[in-house]
Amino acid sequence: MSLSNTEIRYYDSTVLRLPADKRKEYHAQVDRLVSALTTSVHEQTDVKITKVVKAGSFAKYTILRKTSEDPVDVDVVFYISGRSVDQETLGSLTQLIYDALIKLYPNKSVEHFEIQRKAATVQFVGSGLSVDIVPVIEDPARPGYGWQFDIHDGTKMQTCAPCQLKFVQARKDKDADFRTLVRLAKKWRNRIELTQLKSFVIELIMAHVLAKNGTDGSIEKRFRDFLLYIAQSGLKEVISFPENGLVLTKFNDPVVILDPVSSSNNVASRITEDERKEIVAAAVAAWETANFASQEDDIDIWKELFGPRFKVKEEA
To answer: Please, is 1 exposed, middle or buried when counting C-beta atoms within 10 Å of its C-beta (0-12, 13-18, 19+)?
Structure first.
């Protein structure tokens, strides 16, 4: 017998979803960082920060609560004006923010700073919260849009953090369990350490499956459909969305999943052919396990996918 929607929602609400009190705590911590950093950047440089947007899984409400295998991170996008996208690099922008952070936090309230691919990262010791600060040069002609850089290869792409939040909200409006499904997929991903399958990619694949199959069936079946889509398609189909409009860019990457806010950006471009095969093989194995667990109505088999904390009702 399949798991009921009530059972899966219980697991999501009690184990997977970030609790309201923690969300409030993280919001406050990020807000304090944003306020102090904005002031510091303005005092130290001529850079003008025009807007700050919380983005990523935290802002989309698809984040998992913190565990030893589920880190908690918040993306904070800093929109910067008065800078030329042709003259700036991520290195120069991130270094500027990095220097401001060093001056702002000389004590041990912050564990470390790290320059990552697209952001400067701040990790707070007390809460374990990791904050990625993403500098974006705003596009004055398109509200919400801007240029984001890649520190490793120097490429730049157009992005729109508010638009990405709107994209997920639109799917949530169509399917009340969309975020639950994403969290289930992310927990499975983390459980088997399938690190090359990024959270944004999971969200977009889930949105594509929603567009193909609709909301018919139980949450459990639709999670299995997510795994089945990856297994059957091999991730060889180009995934795009109505928001993309006419797509003119051609891609030669093993996996092509278009950013719904920027049709020239393949969010799966860094997945290699070997990694594609690994993701597909993992999905095949997971679908077989989930299908068997559903048929057997066996919680212990479900724990093979989601770990020992998987539960669907209050324990006696």
So the answer is: exposed
- Counting the structural domains of the chain, the total is 2
Q: 131 and 254 share a domain?
A: no
Residues 98 and 140 in one domain: yes
Helix (H) or strand (E) holding 49: strand 48-55
Q: Quick one: tokens of 112?
A: 């470390």
- Find out whether 221 and 209 touch, Cβ atoms under 8 Å: no
**Residue 79 shares a structural domain with residue 118:** yes
Q: State the angle between helix axes of 219-233 and 178-191 in degrees (0 to 180), rounded to the nearest 10.
A: 60
Give the Cα separation of 22 and 262 in Å (integer): 32
Of residues 242, 208, 243, 248, the one with CA closest to residue 228: 208
At 12, the amino acid letter reads D
pTM of structure: 0.90
Give 146-184 as a DSSP string.
Answer: EEEE-TTT--EEEEEHHHHHHHHHHHHHH-TTHHHHHHH
156 and 166 in contact (C-beta within 8 Å)?
A: no
- The answer to whether residues 145 and 230 belong to one domain is no
For residue 69, the tally of other CB atoms under 10 A from its CB is 12
Pairing of strands 73-81, 130-138: parallel
Q: Residue 279: which domain range?
A: 175-306
Contact 261/157 with Cβ under 8 angstroms? Answer: no
Reference 124, options 40, 36, 45; nearest CA is: 36
Model confidence pLDDT, tens digit, residues 189-238: 999 999 999 999 999 999 999 999 999 999 999 999 999 999 999 999 99
Which secondary structure element, helix H or strand E, spans residue 294, and what is its range?
helix 273-296
- 226 found inside a domain: yes
